[in-house]
């Protein structure tokens, strides 16, 4: 309900102390119910609405949420008996201000319980069929099919409908903490995918010695550090929550690293998280779009705010919030941020522009708008090869990254690559 009511993020809410205090089993069930209901919301509404006496009727948020959570369990979970799902949903409504709607919730969920579960088609034909079957907005799937092809669009959608895996960044990847079972990452030698275990209870994760960080995010920071190995002054212009800043500080120990962000609260959280282990990082509150930088930095990472369409497996509410109009609005701010931060590069300095968006308006188009005389694009592939020679990228990772390095840029795509979707471009000042 908090997600539906405003700008709250499910990922943040599910890390709240109230959730952490639950038993591991209840925490897993809570996470499954919240994220999966958001993932399948479009398809769930398509099942619920025709069963209403007036399919266009406006439902209260309490009733709508109870119906969606109940329908998800009936259609996608096997362990909870239908009668228990229906009873819990009815009791949930009775506890709120919409007690009179308990009968409606009971009737709708009983109808859904008697319907056949519809399997997702193995080979949906049109983009509309993919969107309907896999609970994505049609306009979003259509543009992915146009840009990347129908097969890639379907792969992205299928990836978004599965629980997002947990990837760890480990200083000593050979030794996993007690209680965790891990396997090797996809690209990077220091990345490990969690197979089983409760990371919230692991001291090394709590202290920051082991970090939860998607492998695509790690890769962007590794590329940035490798693009300017001798850097002495480094700026992370949109630093929070800090995973990429940490990689830069670790890979470039000789450098003075400044972490800047528009949010004082998020910078404070970064300092608490990283301060003890990486005390040399400087923290600065700044709006990257309006800052006036002197050409003082050898390396700038410009990981801009974006639509986040490459992260919908872990942030499923994005599909309900982002519109095509938002992409143009985001682009204007991204062009402003990139233009302002380019001014901070010394001659010979390097800036890495990145997003976790799949949309060309936020990626190639921004680079094209902002780049100007005196700046040029460096191809990413030689940097990836350099990382492979150094052992940072594994031999298997080098092979897998061939499809992610297209032209001058890096682009990972969920479902095509087993990680979030990231874009990165390397810009050098002459």
Account of the protein in words:
This protein has 430 residues and is an alpha/beta fold. It has 3 domains: 2-114, N-utilizing Substance Protein B Homolog, Chain A; 127-160, no CATH class; 214-429, Rossmann fold (3-Layer(aba) Sandwich). Helices cover 44% and strands 15% of the residues. It has helices spanning 2-5, 10-13, 17-20, 24-39, 41-48, 61-76, 82-94, 102-114, 127-133, 138-148, 150-160, 203-207, 215-227, 243-251, 264-274, 318-321, 324-342, 364-370, 381-389, 395-400, and strands at 167-170, 181-184, 191-196, 210-212, 233-236, 256-261, 282-285, 297-303, 345-355, 375-378, 405-406, 409-411, 423-429. Strands 5, 6, 7, 8, 9, 10, 11, 12 and 13 form a 9-stranded mixed beta sheet that branches. Strands 2-3-1-4 form a 4-stranded antiparallel beta sheet. The radius of gyration is 23 Å and the shape is globular. The model has no long low-confidence stretch (mean pLDDT 93).
